[in-house]
Amino acid sequence: MTKQGCSYNGGICHKTIESCDGCNRKLENGSGWFCSACPDPEQKWKNGNCNLASHVTTATTQKKQKVNPLKASKRARR
């Protein structure tokens, strides 16, 4: 969606959904709120998080590595 209108699907862009609240890509047009990056936001959120959403962060967890006690004691002696 741009200021000139929508170029998707014959000029018909779909309005944003609740999951898009808080995103920086939302634009307000005369007829409602639209996404500037995706013409059909519902399809982007269908299989999980939208990859273009600026308000969603993915939490990465690091696995704790196992420490070999024998090697750790040898390293400590150095």
Major pleated sheet? 2 strands, antiparallel
Radius of gyration: 23 Å
The total of beta strands comes to 2
Domain count: the total is 1
SSE order: EEHH
Assembly annotation: single chain
How widely separated are the two ends? Answer: 63 Å
Q: Percent of residues in helical segments?
A: 10-25%
**What class do helices, strands and sheet pairing give?**
alpha+beta
Features:
78 residues, alpha+beta
Can you offer a commentary on this structure?
This protein is an alpha+beta fold and 78 residues long. Helix content is 17%, strand content 10%. It has one domain (1-56). The chain contains two helices and two strands; from the N terminus they run ββαα. It has a two-stranded antiparallel ribbon. A hairpin with a 2-residue loop joins β1 (26-29) and β2 (32-35). The mean pLDDT is 81.
List strands and helices in order, with pairings.
Layout lengths: L25 E4 L2 E4 L5 H4 L24 H9 L1
Antiparallel strand pairs: 1-2
Brief synopsis:
By secondary structure, this protein is an alpha+beta fold. Helices cover 17% and strands 10% of the residues. A two-stranded antiparallel ribbon has the order 1-2.
